[in-house]
Amino acid sequence: MSVRLLLSVAGISALALLLHAALLAAEVPGPGAIVLIVCFALAAVLALLLERPIRRAASFAAQLSHGELPPRLPETALGTIGDLFRAMNRLAEAHRTGLEERGAEKTETEVLLREMGEGVLALDSEGLIVRVNAELQSIIGAADVVTGHAAGTVFRNPQLVTFLSPATVPEEGHTDEFEVFGRTMLVTARRLPAGGIVAVFSDMTELRRLDRVRTEFVANASHELKTPLTAIRGFAETVADASVPDADRAAFANRIVGHSERMAAIVDDLLTLARLEDRSYTILSQRVSIRPLAERILEGFAQRIEAAGTSVTLAIEPPDLELNADPEGLRQILENTIDNAIRHSGSTELHVKASERPSGSVRLSVEDNGQGIPAAHLERVFERFYRADPSRSRATGGTGLGLAIVKHWVEQMGGRVSAESSVGQGMRIQVEFPTL
Q: How is residue 128 annotated by DSSP?
């Protein structure tokens, strides 16, 4: 069996000094030997005392190397030890400052990634996900963090996975559009200096939808204006023909007037929509009595209502109900919703209602018992020129802009508008204004 003894260098030095002292004492007679032993003993004690601050400084440095922030060393010591402790404290302070700066930068980066409207994805050189911000996390629909997974296990689009592969990303990066979980995303991928790539996902879904709406609007507006223009041209050429009897000329002239009035109505409605979409446009706000306004509008439709054999019910509760609104806007809201019901429903009953809600809001509704429209069309009835049945709607002579104007006026006055319908069950347009 063997025994191993471990001593520090200072301890070994102290023992060596004592050993030398003993050997010298054996050779030096009398009091000199005693003095020598004492001197060497004091040297050993001094060596042991020197070991403590060195051990303390070594422990301090070890903690710093592990990223820890140890308590400051006392700076009252004199000489080299004091200089060492002060240098170690300055080193620790610089380390602490660096940690704080990196922590602040990390926090700022986290906030930036969290609050930015685009999704951010970082992949390492192997194509594994190392970072995903909250925006992209919500698009992915994953409740748990997906870091550590390959991009192919998260994105099911093979073209996108290839696009994000670090091996395919050029030095200058590249950009393309992809369908990502049902949304149109503009993806830009660039290489990272340390390897891997970073990709930014910009949601283009709404922008592409607006592009489609704009394209459809231009096409629809052109078509709606071309129809009466073509008719006007045809009738005008006929009227210009000298062989046409005078009696027929008058009929053709009346048709020209009718189509020109339709064109004027379309242009007026387009100008109304343009005015309402102008952010600088200011609407009026004054007390408007609902019953007299509704009665005047229904009186204007009396001939058409009678021709259609439709019975009308007007219910205003309380009878003297008033609303803070733009008078022209409220007139157009009621007029267009009533016109829509008469023109397109084929109903035998028409109910116009207004009531004050317990919350203080005012609810207006126009309801018919006509043929209604499929539920799939309800989300689009307030779009410009949208028609659930294009052939039948155009035959009735409407501009296709009435409900779009209703929606814009309601939103300008801080209200909400909705449509309820099903085939064979009629339709109800409901408007709710926030306060009296």
A: B
Cβ(427)–Cβ(421) below 8 Å: yes
d(CA 333, CA 411): 11
Best CA proximity match to 412, nearest among 300, 291, 272: 272
Give the separation between CA 385 and CA 390, rounded to whole angstroms.
9
Using CB atoms within 10 A of its CB, is residue 430 exposed (0-12), middle (13-18) or buried (19+)? middle
Q: Which residues are within 8 A (CB) of 132 and not within 5 positions of it... i.e. 6 or more apart?
A: 119, 120, 121, 122, 140, 145, 146, 147
- CA–CA separation, 123 vs 286, rounded Å? 59
> How much is the mean pLDDT over the chain?
78
Element (H, E) at 230: helix 205-240
- What's the average model confidence in pLDDT over 12-32? 53
Give 401: exposed, middle or buried? Use CB within 10 Å, 0-12, 13-18, 19+: buried
Max Cα separation, the chain?
161
The predicted structure's pLDDT at residue 113: 53
Q: What is the pLDDT of residues 195-217, one digit of tens each?
A: 888 888 888 888 888 888 778 77
Q: What is the pLDDT of residue 7?
A: 40
- Cα(434)–Cα(359) distance, rounded to whole angstroms? 9
pLDDT value of position 410: 92
Spatial CA neighbour of 298 closest among 309, 306, 286? 306
CB 293 within 8 A of CB 330: yes
- pLDDT value at position 5? 38
d(CA 130, CA 166): 13
Task: Please say whether the beta carbons of 202 and 175 come within 8 A.
Answer: no
Average pLDDT (294-320) is: 90
> Strand locations in 193-319, DSSP E?
197-203, 286-289, 311-317
Alpha helices in 66-150 (DSSP H): 79-115, 134-140
Q: Which residue has the higher pLDDT, 296 or 16?
A: 296
